[in-house]
Design a protein that fits this description.
Oligomer: single chain
Distance between the termini: 61 Å
Strand content: 15-25%
Bound molecules: flavin-adenine dinucleotide
Number of helices: 16
Length: 603
């Protein structure tokens, strides 16, 4: 075995976003040695982009809120495809996790009484999102990072894990390289936590950061773990659409939470036209009631703009398809109208939504205090991911844990806004603690040097094909294909076509070539990302073919209704012995009677 820079820890955490940092703190607090490896710089993980807030039933703004309401909202939002135990743990433990973050120094916005302020968000019955203006992710990362570095956690920045290493069934480490110098790194560990985030870079229009190339899901799949709910890709209803250079950048749901309304080119608030039966009782009858809700009137019900993201995104697509869209193929989101309701509206908007104000002013020359924004759906979040145990977050591979966006189960068919940041805290903590327990209970395993050498050789192959096709072109074609054929509205024949296209793209990726050398070479990085993106795109497509109904974020034009039988199972994907992807329908976990009762009570 050539000499690789080697590191050894009890627990290796892959990813330094909210989930990874919280997992590392949890493991370190249990007394084991912890290393973090992250593709970006510390403090720059995708979580830093999170805007609107962290969902937790603190009941600071409305005392009617509690874990049961949060649990019921999460299950309803996920169309009951969620793992109920995960949804219960999440709702019960999120408040303590937010208070812990506060105790570690997070500077939240405050109520007049000095409590953590909470705001409205889609699908949440009461104001529930603890926030720091519209820069909550930045504050979360800053706080966790400050806390984490004082625990003696080792951090390898700008390093990419390429493969997980196994001893028999069990994970015993990882192998990767540093992006700056291109040198290989070998990580030995008794337990590994994946916290690598999502998959948005498989699509052309996305709010996701460059890191979102589905690495963790592909690493887990290749190591023998199961993936679940891959058909459920969330398209956030409000991304910027104009000018082209900003297409996909997120416009926070906080805009609608503060009273922003959606209108078509005829000036009609089309969200009142179609309110799903599941939400009829909770939705305002008229604009006046909706406005009162956003201003804290406890007797009012939420405006239809704050229905779940899947529904709002599809309503926008309907307006555009039927010829009522905005000039650049979206609809209008207007917060400036609130000047009719409050004298100091411009100042209020700038104070409540500072990032949105600057984002539109600087990138689109739009003053959102004076004029509407043009928006459309953007690929935003992956509900699917590594299938894990609800209590421990361990995957089906012993010693391999997953938390945050790369894990599946909590959100079912559709995630509610704010429920990701709380997911990172609650399940990041659990994953770290259980990984530490696993490391304490198991001696270090053996790393197979042949396996490591093979991974190193494979990583360098693109250099042997200097005249091979550019990996950037292959990635672009993949993104366009996924956007067109496996996007927000799906059809069987298009999905089948996508599978065939994926085979062709895989062939092209095998022949991709790069020029130059190993030291900071973006072409090489992209060539290495490709196989992850392709594997996960295949999993999304396969699951989308297999779910022959429409539910949550998965909309089939050719099967537009919900099918009660299909609603009783999750799609689970694993690698077969022949190396081919296999998909199975696995019954949803049974919901205990006491949780069924909670759902009945909250109807
Ligand atoms: C614009 C925007 C706004 C959002 N706002 C909110 C919000 O207000 N509330 C909310 O709840 N959710 C929000 N979300 C969603 C939420 O931010 C994400 O789901 C969440 O931050 C994911 O966190 P994570 O810890 O799972 O992953 P990340 O924060 O993405 O961290 C992933 C880490 O893994 C590393 N990594 C990836 N692959 C590898 C590899 N191969 N080797 C080594 N390291 C690797 C990355 O470098 C990174 O450090 C928003 C998302 C976006 C895009």
């Amino acid at each position: 075995m050539p000499e690789y820079l080697a590191r050894e820890h009890d627990v290796l955490v892959i990813g330094a976003g909210g989930a990874g940092l919280r997992a590392a703190i949890g493991a370190s607090a249990a007394g084991v040695s912890v290393g973090i490896v992250t593709k970006s710089l510390l403090g720059k993980a995708h979580t830093v982009m999170a805007e609107g807030g962290i969902a937790a039933a603190l009941a600071n703004v409305d005392e009617r809120d509690n874990w049961k309401v949060h649990f019921a909202d999460t299950m309803r939002g996920g169309q009951y495809m969620n793992n109920p135990r995960m949804a219960q743990i999440h709702a019960q433990e999120a408040p303590a996790c937010v208070r812990e973050l506060e105790a570690w120094g997070a500077v939240f916005d405050r109520t007049k009484e000095g409590k953590i302020l909470q705001r409205n968000f889609g699908g949440h019955k009461y104001p529930r999102l603890a926030h720091v203006g519209d820069r909550t992710g930045l504050e979360m990362i800053r706080t966790l990072q400050d806390h984490g570095i004082h625990q003696g956690i080792d951090v390898d920045m700008e390093c990419v894990v390429l493969t997980l290493l196994k001893d028999g069934d069990r994970v015993v480490g990882a192998f990767g390289y540093d992006r700056e110098r291109g040198r290989f790194r070998l990580y030995r560990a008794k337990a590994v936590v994946l916290a690598t985030g999502g998959v948005g870079r498989a699509y052309k229009i996305t709010s996701n950061s460059w890191e979102y190339t589905a690495d963790g899901l592909a690493l887990a799949y290749c190591a023998g773990a199961e993936l679940m709910d891959m058909e459920f890709v969330q398209f956030h209803p409000t991304g910027m659409i104009w000018p082209p250079s900003v297409q996909g950048i997120l416009v926070t749901e906080g805009v609608r939470g503060e009273g922003g309304v959606l209108k078509n080119k005829e000036g009609r608030r089309f969200m009142f036209d179609d309110i799903p039966p599941l939400y009829k009782n909770q939705t305002a009858d008229n604009p006046e009631e909706g406005w009162r809700y956003t201003q804290g009137d406890r007797a009012a019900r939420r405006p239809p703009e704050l229905l779940t993201r899947d529904h709002v995104a599809r309503s926008i697509v309907r307006e555009v398809r039927e010829g009522r869209g905005s000039p650049h193929g979206g609809v209008f989101l207007d917060i400036s109208w609130i000047k009719e309701k409050m004298p100091n509206a411009a100042e209020h908007i700038k104070r409540k939504l500072p990032s949105m104000y600057h984002q539109f002013k600087q990138l689109a020359d739009i003053d959102i205090t004076k004029e509407p924004m043009e928006i459309g759906p953007t690929t935003h979040y992956m509900m699917g991911g590594v299938r894990v145990d609800a209590e421990s977050q361990m995957s089906s591979v012993p010693g391999l844990f997953a938390a945050g966006e790369c894990a599946a189960g909590l959100h079912g068919a559709n995630r509610l806004g704010g429920n990701s940041l709380s997911d990172l805290l609650v399940f990041g903590k659990r994953a770290g603690e259980h990984a530490a327990a696993f490391a304490n209970e198991h001696p270090a395993g053996q790393v197979n040097s042949d396996e490591v050498d093979a991974a190193a050789r494979q990583a360098l192959e693109p250099f042997e094909r200097p005249s091979g096709e550019s990996p950037f072109l292959i990635q672009r074609d993949l993104q366009e294909m996924m956007q067109d054929l496996v996007g927000i509205v799906r059809r069987e024949e298009e999905l089948q076509k996508a599978l065939a296209e994926l085979k062709k793209l895989e062939g092209r990726a095998r022949l991709a070539g790069v020029t130059g050398h190993r030291e900071y070479n973006p072409g090489w990085h992209t060539a290495l990302d490709l196989s992850n993106l392709l594997t996960i795109s295949e999993a999304i497509t396969l699951a989308a073919i297999e779910r022959k109904e429409s539910r949550g974020a998965h909309f089939r034009d050719d099967c537009p209704s919900r099918d009660e039988t299909a609603g009783k199972f999750n799609m689970v994907i694993r690698r077969g012995r022949d190396g081919e992807m296999q998909i199975a329908r696995v019954p949803l976990p049974e919901m205990p009677a006491e949780l069924k009762q909670v759902i009945e009570e909250m109807k």
